[in-house]
Amino acid sequence: MPVSSRALQKQEEENWLKKIKVLICDDSRIMRKLISNVVEADERIEVVGQAENGVDCLEKIVQFQPDVVTLDLNMPVMDGLTVLRESKVRGLNTTFLVVSSLAKKDAQITIDALTEGAIDFILKPSQAFNIA
Fold this sequence. Notes:
- The protein has helices spanning about 5-15, 30-40, 55-65, 80-90, 110-115, 125-130; strands spanning about 20-25, 45-50, 70, 95-100, 120-125.
- The protein is of the alpha/beta class and about 130 residues long.
- It has a 5-stranded parallel sheet with strand order 2-1-3-4-5, with helices on both faces.
């Protein structure tokens, strides 16, 4: 049965209004708060959770089903590269954006993260805010 143009229009409107769900993963409470504040400044984005290490991150991906995960690379318990590898093994369907003080252009860890599935990287602004 063909979908009516009104039903299709309603579906498109609902998709347009749907917020992008983001999970913030960083071992620093200050950085989680800072990243959350920046992300939530856009009304189209909702922070659905925060994780303080890689194990916590993988659990919260399953729990919250985020569209995007901001991912630190250097964390205790499980690092970001392992999170990227594990997410593939587990078939977790999310997008990873690396936000790390280690993520610099041409740095091997950045190349590894991109190879493992991260879509891009952002250098943490720790030096700009004097919070390292």
